[in-house]
Amino acid sequence: MTIAPQPDFDALDRLDLLDLDDTLEAEDRLLRDTVRRFATEQLRPHIAEWFEAGTLPARDLALEFGKLGVLGMHLSGYDCAGAKASQYALACTEIEAVDSGLRSLVSVQGSLAMYAIHAYGSEEQKQEWLPRMARGEAIGCFGLTEPDAGSDPASMRTYARRDGDDWVLHGSKMWITNGSISDVAVVWARTDDGVRGFLVEKGTPGFTSSDVHHKISLRASITSELSLDEVRLPASALLPEARGLRAPLGCLTEARFGIIAGVVGAARDSLASALDYANSRVQFGRPISSFQLTQRKLAELAVTVTNMQLVARRLAELKDDHRIQPHQVSYGKFSNVRSALEVCREARSILGGSGITTEYPVLRHAVNLETVYTYEGTHEVHTLVLGERLTGFASYR
Question: Do the bridges between strand 159-163 and strand 166-177 make them parallel or antiparallel, or are there none, so unpaired?
């Protein structure tokens, strides 16, 4: 397969219309450049092949991400880096500039599975799992969504009952990233005392998984169904601090922050690819970037990407100040994912027929973002979160 020229990442300065890079501290710039270099050298050369094959060497990549220090990097202690939210955002942007599936691997590990253990687990659970997960030696997944309970997690059917000192879980979970390769699954279930969280280890009798195949989107990502058939767990498997639906929703709020920053990378990469193509593609005796209609497209896309960056930066500031609110995270996902999709679709039009192949990343980013548009809270749900904030009326039911 012929590989098209990739965007010149030194030339990304031309897309920085507001000189946002000037606001980065030296430490942040070093981190950003380190992750960008890793993504360019280790991930980008292989991503088209992984996407076309519908596979991902996730275990090997987890170890590499662990060495890079991005797994649970925003958590403190237990061999986690304790990085600022703004630094985690930079890492997510650079990883998703290659592919949303790769950022999903990182954010599900760190912001869902590891965060759940960090926020709600016992000290023993933290010591057992977090250091290994930070190094990528153990992989985790997050089991909340079910075949019949997506946007309405309160309707989940997975149930956990007490049996002596043990718990017995029965049910299923769907659309679980990293599910079949995980060493531990954070599984949420209804109990007589409300929703509780459990750590279910790989190999536990009655706990099985199967991968979802024939995907069009997020092909470079492992998506699974989890089945729990009378799975018996010891009392020590319960996350002691997780009580009620607020706990898993808190994990989702944490993970959505990475999405908000990550999709900036997908949009920026699509714009950079379209700009490079437009400068080199000659029609009617001149580069198509010299025509007014193409320049209008490029200008509008560049402004949209910059606005996405500003939203991500502002939310990172709020998160670093410990002032971020759930409706602000919904604002970010609502705004940035929608904008990223618009950028990818318009950038594809600049590439013409070349844009429908995997030689260029633009349409791959677009189809991936169709999944990001609906996972971890659909676009419609975030619309209603903002509507409730504006009006004071909840309209979910």
Answer: antiparallel
